[in-house]
Amino acid sequence: MKWSGAPTPKGRGCFFLAEQGKPSSIVQGIGEVSDMLDGISALLTARSLQDLRSGAVSVFSMMGMPRVICLSPIGHDRSVGRTLVNAGFPLEWENAYLDARHMDDPLPDIAVRIGSAFHWDHLPSDVVLNQNETTYLEDLKSWGMEKGVCVATYGPAARVGFIAASSETGQDSLHAVDMQLFQVAAQTAYLRYCQLMTLELNYEMNLSSRELDVLHWMAQGRSNAAIGETLSLSPDTVGTYVKRIFAKLEVFDRTSAVMKGVMRGLVIASDPEVEAEALARRARKREG
């Protein structure tokens, strides 16, 4: 029997077989649903990023979408570094995306705004695109990525990701895909991704007390000049500490440094009580 991959007429988020009139089809349909749920459950216990990648591809393949990408972290600034995991999409697209086209991609922003899964070939009616974004979506066709579904995902430490999937050809209609089930699978995969990324950060940070001070104020959104004023350091000296922090945390920007610090429990971003206490202690030290 061929698995149809379509939702039930009542839209209950279940799947059924094309020959649903036969008892054997019903039994097999239950088996397919069980396989799907088992696959999603297995994502939570993946032991490595490679296992998670394979498991996610397997789950989305059951939905007719064997090609998957994950972007993380997602923020309002597209120029901030995002890790791209590509499983099956063209290398030509990946190279172009990493080189410059990520600046034109509106899909992660749209996904974060609407909060639910959607087809990127049928955007919500209230979406307004600029010319570069429109051109990017039109160019997806030339890369064999004309049609697909995507969703924003959420993890610990306010981490936001983006998962997208498509059929083998990128031209198949995906309107039979259960979008709620897709979102559940994507969210499950992303949660485990965040957990595994945290586990892989098993190196010693070895940040000095002064570097931890600088990282703390970075987490509060302070500029180098403001940090220098708070810590009685010159902006150049603060800049040197920031470079050392980047090197030790293996990052290239302030946002990534703060995120790693938060994930490892080194800092708490924008904590007013911590900030007030730190200022009070420094004031007492100067007075003493």
Produce a short descriptive summary.
The chain has 288 residues and is an alpha+beta fold.
Task: Tell me about this structure.
It is built from 11 helices and 7 strands. It is an alpha+beta fold and 288 residues long. α1 packs antiparallel against α2, α2 (49-62) packs antiparallel against α6 and α9 crosses α10 (254-263). It folds into 2 domains: 3-200, Transcription factor LuxR-like, autoinducer-binding domain (Beta-Lactamase, 2-Layer Sandwich), CATH 3.30.450; 209-287, Winged helix-like DNA-binding domain superfamily/Winged helix DNA-binding domain (Arc Repressor Mutant, subunit A), CATH 1.10.10. A 5-stranded antiparallel sheet has the order 4-3-7-6-5, with helices on both faces. Strands 1-2 form a two-stranded antiparallel ribbon. A hairpin with a 5-residue loop joins β6 (149-154) and β7.
